[in-house]
Amino acid sequence: MTELRKRGGGGGDPDSTDNISDKEADGEDRLGLSGDAEGECDVDSKTDTPDVPVSTADTDNTPECLTKALEGLPPRWKNYWIRGVLSIPMISSFFLITYMGPIALIVAVMGVQIKCFHEIITIGYRVYHSYELPWFRTLSWYFLICVNYFFYGETVADYFGGLVQREEPLQFLARYHRFISFALYLAGFCMFVLSLVKKHYRLQFYMFAWTHVTLLIVVTQSHLVIQNLFEGMIWFIVPISIVICNDIMAYLFGFFFGRTPLIKLSPKKTWEGFIGGFFSTVIIGFIMAHLMSRFQYFVCPVEFNSETNRFSVECEPSDLFVMQEYTLPAVLQNALKWETVNLYPFAIHSVFLSSFASLIGPFGGFFASGFKRAFKIKDFASTIPGHGGIMDRFDCQYLMATFTHVYIGSFVRGPNPSKVFQQLLMLQPEQQLGIFHTLHSHLRERGMLPPAATQTE
Amino acid sequence: MTDLRHRGARDTDQQQPSEDKGSDSELKPDKDGVSDSESKVDSGVPEVPVPPDDTPEVLNKALSGLSSRWKNWWVRGILTLAMISFFFIIIYLGPMVLMMIVLCVQIKCFHEIITIGYSVYHSYDLPWFRTLSWYFLLCVNYFFYGETVTDYFFTLVQREEPLRILSKYHRFISFALYLTGFCMFVLSLVKKHYRLQFYMFGWTHVTLLIVVTQSHLIIHNLFEGMIWFIVPISCVICNDIMAYMFGFFFGRTPLIKLSPKKTWEGFIGGLFATIVFGILLSYVMASCRYFVCPVEFNNDSNSFQVDCEPSELFQLQEYTLPSVLESVTGWTTVRLYPFQIHSIALSSFASIVGPFGGFFASGFKRAFKIKDFANTIPGHGGIMDRFDCQYIMATFVNVYIASFIRGPNPSKVIQQLLALRPDQQLHIFNSLKAHLIEKGLLPAMEVNA
């Protein structure tokens, strides 16, 4: 049955709702391994259209001990057990990395990003049978490095302002950062043009476009994730957990109550799962936000302490994370007999985040399902036994990361003060003076400065 | 010869690339539809079988005596002159008109590339796809124009209440609009056409990335001062013409397999000629305030104005010549605008790296077996054909300005300052005060906290 194929390939159900996030420990360990496995797949599937890469050539990634322990069970339950067993290490790695702090999280995000990029590019090679295009593998990785350099440079310059100002080479790099990134990108572009080979023009353009779209999707959004992280780890953890929770809850509701199919793209999703997942995610998100809001570790913006040369998460929690009293509307008052409730404002924001994750997040999953059907693949890769590739785990997360970032920018409070100050310092002195006076009058108007200021000049 | 095909075209648009032909782009889809069905028969080669002759009758009659090769040169030459004079007229008309032109060129280029995608994939009848492509174009334009408008029209925006809300939640609104398009795409996936639909989705996004982002960079350059718009474009045009001339008269060694007509002699000759042209052009333009001043929106008169004290870049300065040049020309110092030195960098880029944009477009046309992007301009091809080298130039100028001329826009910084919380504002105020006092810009005897 299909279960055998699933087990054999180590690929999980592509339409699975079990979207548990993986941690880079798995990804990095598997990098070498899956590279080989995919290499074998390439050779096999090149002859035919890139059909299910779950051929028998796939090495079974499930560890020996698990396979022995589960020998007795029927195949269907074996698959569930494998998935379940692997979900636990994944979730625990998530907790472990959260505990280890912001740097570990950034490295994890970076690792996931590289693996996702690799997976999608490999699919592109298979689709176009273009594994041997001259230069192309080099160029794809080169573009990845360029774009990452650009984004990390912007982030580093923003958040590590003090450190950057101290070191001379860093200062130079920061000042001409955009120019350097652009020059690097152009070098790659010119290499691409020079590498065009007569017979393979079309393929090369396809792969160029494929690389760029992948960069657009994968890299920009992983950097949005990191920017969310710097706002406060809670803005990183809560959205990811909400998406995971939505997947699990929708799956459970669908399993027990599912009847009406939701969309032709993913025949296993049901309306009951969708709606049940929505309500349970809102509730769980609310509870989680409530629990996490009291810890400074999660709530404070991550800052780089120039003296100790490490990250510190200590601050006065902002208004969002301070309990406030809300008057209940009359309806709820009658129901619960409370007049007011003490809530964190962040918990209310979490309702919006949960709603987005439940209502729009699945579209990311449908997009990935459509993509897999379009290119006739079962999973993005076979990295995680029972679950598929890393991209399979993260497809719903991407939309969420962008939404959270835009949400923070629009509703929680925009610009980063240190960044604004950096820009101020870069202006011409006359412009700085002009801004100084504007700011001065503005603050005086607002009563922040005593109005009886005798200004000379 | 190919000339006949050049002259033939499917539509009546014979105007120059920069003309505002919004109505034509509406006409286009019908006519493109006709040629698409014709070219669907062969694998993605949107060749024009029996095109109606696009050249105006009068030109045709005047040139009927000449052989077809010279006829083609004359047609190209006349249209080049028409395009260049049009360029001058537009510059004279001012920034607003320039912005509109850039917008129209962008829409036309987008349309041309998407049409090629349809021909390549025979996907003209995909459900929803045409609508979705235009919708995405609108979304991305809305996002970029919103950012530009908010930066430059800051006070106007603050005054009008609906504009203020739109600008405050701008990113959220743009993202919501984009997401709607994304969800519509997912819902429109049809079982048999998955792959095609994903291809067209990818095609649209890459086109948006190339065409739309760079047209907005052009507009940013424009706001820095019209000279930053005119000189780069002129350098690229000049490089094309000069490289062509040098290649025509002296060309021997082929440059690159992609474009067999380009030669090393043309390349190097074009480089030197363009540098000289750039220096001369910037000398002429740097003295006019109209070109040199940043474009600003005057709230009282509700119009654009270009009036200011020219920055240091545009004031004559004395430079000591290196001894080599001293002995040659007999001058010890020379008076130059600093901008002219920047123009050398711009010209060099236009001559050395700019052509790679052209090679990219040539490779693209060969890959998809098309002769030109479209047949908009008789003798020249589509608008994209005229603009392929410009795109990299626009990005380069923008990055150059940001890196070497001087970064952030003061009004944008003020905007961000005012958006901060009051305690953050106070904190920055104090830091700024300390900084200014340190630099000696403020007397140390300040009373305030």
Could you give the topology of this structure?
The complex is a heterodimer of chains A (457) and B (449).
Chain A: H1 2-9, H2 24-46, H3 64-69, H4 75-100, H5 102-128, H6 136-159, H7 161-166, H8 168-175, H9 177-194, H10 201-231, H11 234-257, E1 261-263, E2 266-270, H12 271-292, H13 296-299, E3 303-305, E4 310-312, E5 324-327, H14 330-336, E6 340-343, H15 345-359, H16 361-374, H17 390-412, H18 417-426, H19 429-446
Antiparallel strand pairs in A: 1-2, 3-4, 5-6
Helix pairs in contact in A: 2-5, 5-10, 6-9, 6-10, 10-11, 10-17, 11-12, 11-15, 11-17, 12-15, 16-17
Chain B: H1 2-7, H2 22-39, H3 57-62, H4 68-93, H5 95-121, H6 129-152, H7 154-159, H8 161-168, H9 170-187, H10 194-224, H11 227-250, E1 254-256, E2 259-263, H12 264-285, H13 289-292, E3 296-298, E4 303-305, E5 317-320, H14 323-329, E6 333-336, H15 338-352, H16 354-367, H17 383-405, H18 410-419, H19 422-439
Antiparallel strand pairs in B: 1-2, 3-4, 5-6
Helix pairs in contact in B: 2-5, 5-10, 6-9, 6-10, 10-11, 10-17, 11-12, 11-15, 11-17, 12-15, 16-17
At a glance:
The complex is a heterodimer of chains A (457) and B (449). With 457 residues, chain A is mostly helical.
**Unreliable runs of chain A:** 1-60, 452-457
Which quaternary structure do these chains form? Answer: heterodimer
Q: Give the strand order, joined by hyphens, for the main sheet of chain A.
A: 1-2
What is the SS-derived class of chain A? mainly alpha
User: What structural class do you assign from the helix and strand content of chain B?
Assistant: mainly alpha
State the helicity of chain A in percent bands.
55-70%
Largest chain interface and its two residue counts?
A-B, 75 and 75 residues
Fraction of residues in β-strands of chain A: under 5%
Unreliable residue stretches of chain B: 1-53
**Nearest-integer average pLDDT of chain B:** 75
Specify the helix fraction band of chain B. 55-70%
What is the tally of beta strands of chain A? 6
What would you report as the Rg of chain B, rounded to the nearest angstrom? 25 Å
Q: How far do the termini of chain B sit from each other?
A: 80 Å
Instruction: Please state the overall shape of chain A, judged from the principal axes of the Cα atoms.
Output: globular
Number of helices, counting only DSSP H or I runs of 4 residues or more of chain B: 19
Distance between the termini of chain A: 85 Å
- The coarse overall form of chain B would be flat
